[in-house]
Amino acid sequence: MPLLVFPGGYGGMVHSDRGRVSLSCCIRRDTLARCRRQWPGSKAAEAVIAHMRASCRGVDAALDSATLDATWLSAGPIRPGIRAIRRDGIFAVGNAAGEAHPIVAEGISMALQSSWLLCERLVAHKDEILAGRGTAALAADYAASWRRNFARRVYMAAIFARLATWPAVARVAAVLLERAPTMLTLGAYLSGKAQPLGVLQSSDSK
Ligand SMILES: Cc1cc2nc3c(=O)[nH]c(=O)nc-3n(C[C@H](O)[C@H](O)[C@H](O)COP(=O)(O)OP(=O)(O)OC[C@H]3O[C@@H](n4cnc5c(N)ncnc54)[C@H](O)[C@@H]3O)c2cc1C
Predict the structure, then answer these.
(1) For the whole model, what pTM was predicted?
(2) Ligand 1 midpoint to CA 95 (Å)
(3) Which domain holds residue 31?
């Protein structure tokens, strides 16, 4: 997936199907506001793509002969953090339970894996639930297991994102990564990417 870097944001392009390519990005609010001033009358996404094409030659060349399929979709804002695992008797999974900063691109994994964790807990606690003893034990178990599996991803992603916004640190990191690319493996490990589902299962199953 080509990584796109432009002033105030970054993104990526992925081949999907039927000759289509999806383009997604994250952009700072102040940059978005500037783009909208620079391209007045455009929708937010149109101003963003104009900004990307104006500042990133590769994006401009790649999109030169592309046509837009339907309209640009916008989503946001990003709200990294850990949220309540249960609200009004409803258990949360995915982004509703917690969100790691997109710098580590773990949102889909966390959505799938947290759903899996909750299902496993529901099965493990079904007897006490069916006996009418409530869901407090299930909630405590799921919350502990969620934290064990995902809290580090959320915290590490926050640290990486914070460091990346300091130009001096980002410059040093670029030099270090060039000299020691294996640091990326460490980063992948710290952000949960090297943690297979099987490990989650064996270490957490009751
Ligand atoms: C532009 C972009 C690029 C991304 N790129 C990546 C990537 O490369 N890799 C990665 O891992 N993650 C990526 N993510 C993050 C990832 O998409 C999310 O973390 C993931 O989809 C979260 O899954 P979810 O099921 O929790 O929520 P969602 O996928 O947001 O699903 C929630 C669904 O609930 C629906 N909904 C909301 N409220 C209600 C309601 N009241 N009643 C009924 N339905 C409701 C919504 O319409 C939505 O369909 C990206 C996100 C964005 C926005």
Answers:
(1) 0.85
(2) 7
(3) 3-62
